[in-house]
Amino acid sequence: MAKITPTPVIVLKDLKKRFGLGDAEHYAIDGINLTIQKGEFIAIMGPSGCGKTTLLNILGLLDSKIEGDYELEDRSVATLSSRRQAHIRSQQIGFIFQSFNLITRMTVIENVALPLIYKGVTQTARLKQASAILHNFHLGEREYYMPHQLSGGQTQRVAIARALVNDPSIILADEPTGNLDSYASHIIMEELSDLHKRGNTIIMVTHNPRLTTYASRVITMLDGRIATDTQTPNRKSETGTKRPLGKKKRTKRKKEQTA
Amino acid sequence: MLGIAIGIASITAILALSGGASRIVGNQIDALGGNIAVVRPGAPSNAVLNAGGQSPTQQQFASSTLTENDIDTIEEIPNITSVAPMMILSGAVKANKGTPVTTTIIASTPSLADTNNLTLREGQFLDPNLSPYTTVIGAQLSVDVFGTEDSIGKIITIRGQSFTIIGILKRDNNPINYNGVDFDSSAIISREAGRSLNQGALQIQQINLRSDSIATLDQVIIDTNKALLKNHFGEADFGVLSGDKIAEPTNRLFSVIAAATTAIAAISLLVGGIGIMNIMLVSVAERTREIGIRKALGASNADIVAQFLIESLALSIGGGIGGYVIGYILALGVSTFLPFDPVLTWGIALTAAVVSIVIGTLFGLYPAIRAARKDPIDALRQYD
Question: Cβ A63–B294 below 8 Å, yes or no?
């Protein structure tokens, strides 16, 4: 069971994000009030264009041109310098992008080791850590492949491995399983569940309603506003995963049962 | 990168060649035994004022402050083995019926052979016991005037006055030397004859002196300075030079050539630098998405600047290394037509390295800062 301690990590107060000017003005996010506690696993759902990705970018400190207030661990983001923001991204936030966003001219292992460069880890240690996490994702044999030599599922696993390699406390995932078959999806979701159990905060954007069963809280958005916000106590990861961490082989069997 | 290579190549070639040129003069002085000093008219340190690089001969032709009296004074200084004044004239020289050849005429004393290590191909050097209207000529001048190197005993007309040739100098193929004259194509006449050719006044451009050993040279220079200062009533309108300083007027000429070529090199470096800047700007534009990814993964602006600066440095240093090699090969190639070899010193390598690093940083900075300023969201949205 994930320990949901009452310490808020993220507090949003009347958050707004505007695109365009004048006649073309449009609020992608139109007044969101949201408090996310440490250790929550949040699934954000909603139709395309409702502001999910924009919200995620704001949460990930990639987009700082906002109206309203965003407090990350009790500090208002608006007061942070860009250097400080980069530091937080490097130390605390893991980003899983919708479109992989691997650097195409670098090998898989170099891609995965990339965030560690900005953490100041030495070359050998970087490659060791990257290699270890790739083994966890069953990509040990693909370390020196180039991204274009991988299948879609493998590419997404590499992207996730990269997001997790620097051991972030907040993981922001934009459709992490969007390109994966259901078996691969489960591997990813189990990994996210494991991270959640270790006390990390996970915020995931998804279109797939089945994946919300892993989450402890489901938020649906509509037109830049929060439509519904429900706690889901009966999480699949609690009922379905009674095995120790890292053993994911049985996932397939479980998947067949559930299918 | 090509521009950087060309720029560094020209700088390397110029420095190597001018280094070689000044070394050759230095070597001559060393070859003479290192115990040579030269007295020249004019204040001793006018290097900056005369950076125009005229050779001393023309510059001080009409205004020499050295007198015949000075020669006698120097001769009396202890530890000096030989003193030779040089009065350098230029004038037409011709054989009986030949066409006149304009060349250098040096009026001096028999000790010139000693101070300048002149060796004769045949015949004898000037002798005070002979008629003053005898001359020793360079082998090349002999060929120019008579069509042969073998012209002993022939009569040559110098500035309208007939001279008997008593000796031919051995070729030394050294047009660049501290005397500012090419002995291969000059005529050496006695001091008395020189005086009569110049309306009775001896205009001494240079006095060469040789001490009896290297150890006594310093003392000789001091003594000479003192004695001459007394002669000139305390006015320091002359300079006693030794070692590298003798080579200075010659070097000055090369430094002017070097300065001119360096200006051309600077232009090609500028062009090369702008080329690098363009390459980097294209690279930044192409890799906008990568910049976005890196920023999302925690790269600070400084990290991005560093990344692109290192790339532009790699380009410029690569060009620099290539240019250094090409420049040296160029210098070697050019030197086959010149009487000296290029020198390769650490100083030149250092100059090349510093120049490429400066260019790389200077022209890499703007693209790097542009890259770092990119908004991560906009950068990520770029489709590639």
Answer: no
Contact B360, B44 (CB under 8 A): no
Number of domains in chain A: 1
- ipTM for the predicted complex comes to 0.80
Check A101 against B295: CB less than 8 A apart. no
Cα A48 → chain centroid: 18
Question: Which residues of B fall within a CB distance of 8 Å from A97?
Answer: 293, 296, 380
Q: Which two tokens stand for residue A102?
A: 């691997």
Nearest to B318 by CA among B279, B371, B366, B285: B279
pLDDT by residue for chain A (259 residues), tens digit each? 454 456 788 888 888 888 888 888 888 888 889 898 888 899 999 888 888 888 888 888 888 788 888 888 888 888 888 888 888 888 888 888 877 788 888 999 999 999 998 888 899 999 999 999 898 888 888 889 998 888 877 888 888 889 888 888 899 988 887 767 788 788 778 888 888 888 889 999 988 888 888 888 999 988 888 888 888 765 444 444 444 444 444 444 444 454 4
- 3-state DSSP percent of chain B in helix, strand and coil, to 5: 55, 20, 30
A75: domain CATH number is 3.40.50.300
Q: Looking at chain B, which residue has its C-alpha nearest residue A91?
A: B298
Chain A residues within an 8 Å CB radius of B310 = none
Q: How far apart are CA A126 and CA B225, in angstroms?
A: 72
Measured between beta carbons, the chain B residues lying within 8 angstroms of A62 are 295-296, 376-377, 380
- The answer to whether position A201 is within a domain reads yes
Domain segments of chain B as ranges: 2-17+266-381, 35-242
Residue A35's domain spans which residues? 8-258
Nearest to A246 by CA among A175, A181, A193: A193
Q: Is residue A3 part of a domain?
A: no
Shortest Cα distance, chain A CAs vs residue B289, angstroms: 8
- A89 close contact with B: CB closer than 8 A: yes
| Binary contact (A89, B302; C-beta < 8 A) | no
Instruction: Give me the residue label for tokens 């264009």.
Output: A49
DSSP three-state, residue B102: strand
The number of beta carbons lying within 10 Å of the beta carbon of residue B52 is 9
Chains A and B: how many Cβ contacts under 8 Å? 63
